[in-house]
Amino acid sequence: MWALALIGIGCTESPAKPGAAAAGPSAIVLVVDGLRTDEFCGTTPSDLTGVPGDAMAPEVWSRVAPAARFSRDAVNTGVTITAPAHAMFVTGRNEPYANFPIEPDLGPGLYRPLVPTIFEEARAALGVGEDDVRLIANTGLIEGVRVSAVPAGGASSGAAWTMVRAPDGTEGRQADDDGVFDELMRAIEADAPRLVVVNLHDVDRAGHYSDDPVYPMRITTVDSELAAFWDWVNAEHPDYAAELMLVITADHGRHRDDVADGWRSHGDACDGCREVPLFVLGPGVEPGEFAAAPLSVDLAPTLAAHLGFALPWAEGLPYEGFATDVGVRSGTFSVARSGDTTAAQVWRDDPGARSEVVIDGESVSTPGVLAAEAPVVFEASFGRFACWRELTDGGVDRPWVARCLADTGDGWAEMPFAVGRVSPFWAVSLAERDGELWASWAENVNAAVEHQEGTVGLAVARWTAEGGWTEPTLTDAWFPTDPALAATPGGLAVAHGTNLDDPDGRYTRRARVTRFTLAADGAPTAAGFTDFARDDARVELPALAADGDALHLVMLVITDAGAHLETATSADGGVTWTEAAPLVGSEAVSTHLRPAWDGADVVWGATDAGAAVLCRAAPGDAEPACVDIGSPRLQSFSVAGGAGTVVRDAGEAAWESAPVEW
User: Coil, strand or helix: which one is 364?
Assistant: First the structure.
């Protein structure tokens, strides 16, 4: 273990390298993968070891914690699995990012975050190169988060990626965590990087696959390595350390002994999975314990603020007590419209009640709830309907739950949804058919990559005022996302994202249209599907519109060369389709925004010479009509009847809604 041996013989024997001189504020995030708080931060005996967690990590608590702002129970509000948690770390958002494996000979492919990462924002804001922004790990699961799907500067504008392998060079075998520390120290001595995210995978690997004693032994080992690294960087490179923010945390925890198979597993909303340790050290940090549990989604905006730039796409807030001179998200974050009804997600600056849902100017979400997100509204011939997701806080778990309201003539009233718990990126699609309300959503509470019988798939259900919701019908889909529902005379059609039913799904992401026929009693049955896929592309975010039996589809197509939109049409309710064709003028499409149909036109967000624009065109048009929205960033939009509403960045991540007309 080179790193520990170097420290053990006395740091002063190795003179500081010129390359490690600070060029400005820097940040390093050490992510101990799968570290349960019980065995690292607990003040009462762990059920697994019989000793308190802080006694299992004596080096961090004696040598690091006295200089840190720390939390024993920081919270991952997203998916408590490695890859989606790291996607949140680098974007500051809960996104539908899956824990797809990466084949060593294929690399990460095109499955990457759909909004710019902090790596790209740091490169642009600080004017630094790839060696100054790094992602280092001994697991390949996170390689895909080094750069977003379609960055402005191409794939090279993200982080330099280092997969640390075993010293014997065995193909595919990862190094132990000490090898990762070795690589990190070499990077500091050579380049003094400005931003580094590091995954230390030994603890998680031991928890899943090793005999009972190995998991706590790995925790004891990483405790020594973390403290030794902190001592080393201060002794060997004091100039670099003087402007360094060092963060020690975990991506997720593990089940406690009263959940499933205990510490072996994770991935759901249980407290043991959600709670993670957090230590923040650096200039201006006031040591002591956080007054309230910070959230993992707050990490990226905290890092950006320390480095001196805003992270406009982030949904989190800088950690409590970390003053910032850059903007943090505020205002209206998303808008949904149907007919004369408008719903919005509005940011609040209260860390304990971060957002609310407002319909026509009136707050309708649960007062004081930690978060209320992703509003959807739908005006039918027999009433108005609204749904969104809320994050509850407390109890043995912290699930996201669905909330819905109905107004059938007497004002808004509670409309309990067909299911309670939903995923951190759940959003429902609503449609009317023969005087009944239909809904479709991705049923995938724990963001499983594969189909799991009865728990993961594409869901549809019907609501009536007399009977409420029917039992959902669940149809096979591997990591389903972003459903778009349309009704036809013959039944229903749902467009959604999915992948092939094998572990290599990250390389086969596609748009799928699933058809449902309806029995005499209205019960839906999946009648087949059509996939829209390309060998060289990732196909996502489909939007679907119906005109009688005719269906119109538009979807996002991401290739190595960039992204564009493609359209296809079915004249028979989705049984047969035309070949997908590119939509002229959509080459600069914004990858995080689902396109929309407005009559015969497709509407989409794009970037033109650094300005955000909203464009529309019908398939076959010679060129689109685009209007500058008056901002470099477009967060969301809604459109109906030739007019739209955009949510744009008014400066320093202050989002505002504004009307748009062509």
Answer: coil
